[in-house]
Design goal:
By secondary structure, the protein is α+β, with helices and mostly antiparallel strands. The protein contains 15 helices and 9 strands. The radius of gyration is 22 Å and the shape is globular.
Length: 391
């Protein structure tokens, strides 16, 4: 689940991480080309900038094209087959035949990478309605959610490529994203953090495989009946999305203190059924968050203070322009002083909804963050381009 308050202003693998030792990863050029094939120019640019900053040298420039399908261009040819046009960011076009993609399997907003020959598509996801949604509103909601699924798939692939390219010693923007999303890493060395990258990668690979599987389901939630007890409970909690609990979840809840333990839940959660999304949940962040519940067994230890801290950064910047420099520096130090890892024993055992308790609880998660749904949404989004709050 995910509280509306927390995000109201926000718009295939086998499940095993494959992180090789540094000695097996080849030359810098090999690594950059492998990263480019997996994650694109943006990831390579960040890696190259990091190398340039450390060594003062120029890096390779790698070009690629990522094509986006425009469903409104579909037509029917003489034999009745659907077609359509794909566009890259320069406005060039290709057909499905050019890209060797089955036109019947693609949806508006799908993306195709002509280097990896990887299709990021919502085509495997079965959509349904939960409750009443006006017929005029449903197509727009489904289209928006399909785009969010594609964005989530793209960003997870890019985040996995960054994890793999880091080996056992993450640095630069990747390290900052890891420390921001998993506060327990704030007091760890890069090498200590590297020991946990296989686990983080495994969670993301399970989610990636789940969203690509034919069993993936998303239910768009409208006005639900009072008799729909699952939706009613979620509505009472004010959430934007949820996944039905497993039997193991229900059993664990018999112990009121089960969330206070730092023992991580198993990844094989036994959960089934659809990811349920309200309108505010139809964005990539929520898709990733809920998919980690559904396919990797994460829990809601604490929703992140992401927007809150970005707003703090903005407000502090505005104040710094008008305050005496010494006062501005003091306020900034106080603000940043709240963003430090806390004793895991101070974690309250529940998702807090009020501030500053929410922020305090986030930084007290300790190892729990490694199975916290919002930590994964936070990590994937920030590692692939969303702003990282100052710390």
């Amino acid at each position: 689940m995910r509280a509306q308050e927390a995000r109201a202003d926000r718009a295939g693998g086998d499940g095993r991480a494959r992180v090789r030792p540094a000695t097996e990863r080849g030359t810098t050029a090999d690594r950059l080309l492998a990263l480019q094939r997996a994650a694109g120019n943006a990831a390579v640019t960040r890696a190259v900038q990091g190398e340039q900053h450390r060594h003062g040298s120029a890096g390779p420039v790698v070009q690629r094209a990522v094509w986006t399908f425009n469903g409104s261009t579909r037509t029917h040819n003489v034999v009745g087959q659907d077609s359509g046009l794909w566009y890259d960011d320069t406005g060039r076009t290709r057909t499905s035949a050019d890209l060797r993609v089955d036109p019947a399997s693609v949806h508006h907003g799908d993306k195709y990478d002509d280097v990896t020959r990887q299709l990021h598509s919502s085509g495997s996801v079965a959509f349904s309605r939960r409750g009443t949604i006006p017929d005029a509103a449903y197509p727009g909601r489904e289209t928006r959610t399909r785009k969010a699924v594609v964005e989530a798939q793209q960003k997870m692939a890019a985040a996995l490529a960054l994890l793999d390219s880091a080996g056992a010693s993450p640095n630069g923007p990747l390290l900052r994203a890891l420390k921001s999303a998993f506060p327990v890493f704030q007091t760890a060395t890069s090498q200590q953090i590297g020991q946990f990258l296989p686990r983080i990668g495994e969670v993301l690979r399970r989610v990636q495989a789940g969203l690509n599987s034919q069993g993936a389901q998303i239910a768009l939630v409208g006005q639900t009946s009072p008799l729909d007890l699952g939706a009613r409970g979620a509505g009472d909690a004010g959430v934007a999305g949820w996944v039905g609990p497993s039997g193991q979840d229900l059993l664990a809840r018999l112990n009121p203190n089960h969330m206070k333990s730092e023992d991580l839940p198993p990844m094989d959660s036994g959960r089934s059924g659809p990811i349920n999304l309200r309108e505010e949940g139809e964005v990539a962040w929520y898709v990733i968050h809920e998919a980690t519940h559904r396919f990797a067994g994460t829990l809601d230890y604490q929703y992140s203070s992401y927007e809150h801290e970005l707003h703090e950064d903005t407000a502090q910047g505005a104040l710094a322009a008008v305050l005496d420099p010494a006062d501005a520096a003091g306020q900034e130090a106080e603000m940043l002083g709240r963003r430090v890892a806390r004793d895991p024993d101070t974690y309250t055992g529940r998702n807090e909804t009020a501030r500053p308790q929410r922020q305090q609880n986030w930084y007290a998660m300790g190892r729990r963050a490694l199975m916290n749904a919002d930590s994964y949404a936070h990590f994937v989004m920030t590692a692939t381009g969303s702003p990282v709050p100052r710390s």
